[in-house]
Amino acid sequence: MKLLKKSRGFTLLEVLIVAVILSVMSFAIFAIMNVANLNYTNDLGLLNLHQQARMGMEWIVKEARQASFVNITNSSSVSINTPAATDIRYYLSNNALVRRDPNGVTKTIAHNISGLTFSHINKMFTVSITSSNTVMRTPLSFSLKQIVRLRNE
C-alpha cells in the first residue's frame, strides 16, 4: 500500500515567515502615513501663516494707498490719515495685528504675527509682516514685505 502525504495546512515556519513579512509591511505603511500626516499638518500651518500675513498686509496697503499722511510712531506702529478718516492706527499686540479706527474701535486683523515694521521715505511706505507659529514642535515662519507709493501725500 502506498502512503500518500496529504497537506492539510501550513507549517509553523511558513506561518512565522508570513507574520514577519506582514509586520514589516505594516510598519512601512505606518511610517509612510506618519510622514504624510506630518507634512500635511506643517503645510496647513504654513498656509494659515500665509493667509494671516496677507490679510494683514491687504488691510494696511489698502488704506496706505489712499493716505494723505503717514506717521510712524515707532517701528511697529503707524497712524494713517486718509481722505475718509484720520488717525487710523495699526499696531502689534500679543502676536496680533490690530487696527484702531478714529472712533477708538479696535479690530484684530491677523493672528500669529510675530513681527511688524514700517518705514516711510519720501512717498514710499514700506510694510513688513512676519507671521510665525509652532506646529507639531516644528517652528514655521513666513515674511511678507510690500512697498506702497502714497497717492495723496
Question: Layout of SSEs?
Answer:
Layout: H1 12-65, E1 69-74, E2 77-81, E3 88-93, E4 96-100, E5 106-111, E6 113-121, E7 124-135, E8 138-149
Antiparallel strand pairs: 1-2, 2-3, 3-4, 4-5, 6-7, 7-8
User: Number of folding domains?
Assistant: 1
Q: Report the span from N to C terminus.
A: 113 Å
Approximate shape: rod-shaped
- Mean pLDDT, nearest integer? 90
How would you spell out the order of helices and strands? HEEEEEEEE
Q: Give the DSSP E fraction (strand runs of 2 or more residues).
A: 35-45%
Radius of gyration, rounded?
Answer: 30 Å
Structural class: alpha+beta
- Count of alpha/pi helices: 1
DSSP helix fraction:
25-40%
Largest sheet, in brief, is: 5 strands, antiparallel
Strand order of the largest sheet: 1-2-3-4-5
Low-confidence stretches: none
The number of strands is: 8
